[in-house]
Design brief:
Strand order of the largest sheet: 1-7-6-2-3
Radius of gyration: 20 Å
Number of strands: 12
Bound molecules: phosphoric acid mono(formamide)ester
Order of helices and strands: EHEHEEEHEHHEHEHEHEHEHEHH
Oligomer: single chain
CATH class of the largest domain: Alpha Beta
Number of domains: 2
Number of helices: 12
CATH topology of the largest domain: Rossmann fold
Largest sheet: 5 strands, parallel
Structural class: alpha/beta
């Protein structure tokens, strides 16, 4: 595997899940694979889970790990070609990428949407430059539009906790004070569409996800109706994806607190598990009672980030051979 950004990059999903379970049972099984190999993890944005779980995954495989916080200690990077660099940016990404690549074997990059241009965000302007100019395998640690390591961990968690063969999984929008990217819901929709689940998306009008990710998933604008009989509730805020009105891209169109996931909505589910990728704003996205309930999976889900990252790095190491 040379690039990891999509569920398609894993190939057979059933085999990938089997591999995840094998690694979960013995996470050091492949610790010889990464000997004398280096993973470089580059963060343009903050992280707790991705940073720690991916470092742990690399260590599980015997790799060396370098972590770079671009905004803390590195030169400020220019990302646009053709700019006269007379401002505060001292280095261009076009030099920085091959230099960084010369110190490692595999590169992970986190770079969120800027909301300055839908076209630039959805063309993955930063990540694609890493793919094009690094000459090294690149995995997405949350980009402008996708968060595949999270969705893989979410799917592993659903596999572990499902109580029927084909569970009903509901992705619900929930309110948030600030504009957040669509990376998590985009990837979650993409991965659920590829999995053996009955998938429903619910959100207020105007929050329609990009068809590239949501595909033919059922969209239900009535949140209570969507929750009926659900086995898993996956809550997340996202800003306007700009699908129906491009001029609204990245805007907060609603802060409707009736969408906060509470016992009221959970009561109509099939005793559903609650999921969220974290970090989460309590009593905006979800009430204290729901996130603290025995049916909440937010901690096992975060723990599975180590497993999804170990599978991905293992596959990338195998492709280096
Ligand atoms: N879920 C997730 O990616 O968490 P971090 O932003 O803390 O890495």
């Amino acid at each position: 595997m040379k690039v990891f950004r999509s569920v398609k990059d894993l190939g057979n999903l059933e085999l990938a899940l089997k591999e995840a379970m094998e690694i979960k049972a013995d996470r050091y099984k492949y610790q010889e694979l990464g000997k004398n190999k280096t993973a470089l993890l580059i963060f343009f944005n903050n992280s707790l889970r991705t940073r720690l779980s991916t470092q742990k995954a690399a260590m599980n495989l015997g790799m060396n790990v370098i972590v770079l916080d671009v905004n803390q200690g590195a030169w400020k990077l220019e990302t646009e070609r053709g700019v006269v660099m007379d401002g505060d940016k001292s280095e261009h990404l076009l030099e920085a990428i091959p230099v960084m690549a010369s110190y490692c074997d595999i590169i992970g990059v986190r770079s969120f949407a800027t909301f300055e241009s839908r076209e630039d965000d959805y063309n993955e302007k930063i990540l694609n430059q890493f793919i094009q100019y690094s000459g090294k395998p690149v995995f997405f640690m949350e980009s402008a539009t996708v968060h595949p390591l999270q969705s893989f961990a979410d799917l592993i968690t659903i596999e572990e906790y499902k109580e029927r063969k084909r569970p009903k999984v509901v992705l619900t929008w929930a309110p948030h004070p600030k504009a957040l990217p669509q990376a998590v819901p985009n990837s979650f929709a993409e991965w659920m569409n590829a999995a053996d689940v009955d998938f429903v998306v619910t959100h207020p009008e105007g929050y329609e996800l990009d068809p590239e990710f949501v595909g033919n998933a059922k969209v239900e604008y009535d949140q209570m109706k969507a929750f009926e009989g659900a086995d898993f509730i996956y809550a997340k805020n996202w800003s306007c994806p700009g699908v129906t009105r491009p001029e609204d891209y990245g805007k907060v169109l609603s802060k409707d607190m009736s969408w906060t996931v509470s016992e009221r909505q959970m009561a109509v589910t099939n005793n559903a598990h609650f999921m969220h990728c974290l970090p989460v704003r309590r009593n905006m996205i979800v009430t204290d009672d729901v996130i603290e309930s025995p049916r909440s999976l937010v901690i096992p889900e975060a723990a599975n980030r180590e497993i999804s990252a170990t599978v991905v790095l293992k596959r990338m190491l195998e492709a280096l051979k």
